[in-house]
Amino acid sequence: MGWPKIHRWQDLGFDFWLVLPLAGLLFVAGGEWVTGQALSRPRRLEQPLAIRSQQQATLALDILSIQAEIRRSRGYTKVEVTTTNPHLRKLEFEFPQMDPDQVSAQIAQELGLAPEQVQRLTRYSLD
Fold it and tell me: Which pTM was predicted?
């Protein structure tokens, strides 16, 4: 004797349809358990991760002007740099220095410019 021929889904019987959702739930629960076990297992790295060098992004900017406002009452200098770059029109900095020479040196360091270029482009105002 072999398997009975089934012509329609309805011929499978009540027992089959009752067990099918239970089998699905067991499959889902078992899959979650196996996944949890696999992901929580510690793995030894063949080579430890290490940062070999630190790279810094630099922007080539054509600077139109530098406006430095020394705010003595607040104890810092606010600097606005205007560029020709359509994506980065303005840069703003705040420095704790209030001496124009120190501010120029800080601006030159931040922008990667020569101090002479910074002095030529910078206009100072006092608050």
Answer: 0.53
3-state SS assignment for residue 39: helix
Q: What is the pLDDT of residues 63-100, one digit of tens each?
A: 899 999 999 999 999 999 999 888 889 999 999 999 99
Bridge partners of residue 125, in order along the sequence: 69
Look up residue 36 and give its two tokens: 């949890």
Residue 120 CA to residue 111 CA, distance in Å, equals: 14
- CA-CA distance, 22 to 94, in Å (whole number)? 66
Tell me the CA end-to-end span of the chain in Å, nearest whole number.
102
43, 55 Cβ separation under 8 angstroms: no
CA distance 63 to 85: 9
CB 87 within 8 A of CB 37: no
